[in-house]
Amino acid sequence: MRLASLVVFLLLWQVVAVVAQDATVPMPAVVFERIGAEIASMALPHHLGVTLLRVSVSFAAAMLIGAAVGIAMGRWPMLDRFLDGWLVLGLNIPALVTIILCYIWFGLNDWAAILAVALNKIPTVVVTVREGARAIDPRLMEVARAYRLPVSRKFLQVYLPQLYPYLFAAARAGLSLIWKIVLVVELLGRSEGIGFQLNVFFQFFDISGILAYTLVFAAVVLLVEALVMRPMERRLNRWRQ
Amino acid sequence: MLTVHVREKHYADRGGRRHLALRDLRLSAEDGEFVCLVGPSGCGKSTLLNIIGGLDATAQASVDLDAGAAAEDVGFMFQEPRLMPWLTVRQNVCLVCDGRPGAEQRALELLRAMELGEVVDAFPGALSGGMQRRVALARAFVIEPRLLLMDEPFVSLDAPTAARLREMLITLWQRRRATVLFVTHDLREALALADRVCFLSASPGRIVLEHRIDLPRPRDPQSVEVGRRYEELLSRHPGLLAGLGGDNQDAA
Question: Does domain B1-69+146-161+178-223+237-252 have CATH number 3.40.50.300?
Answer without folding.
Answer: yes
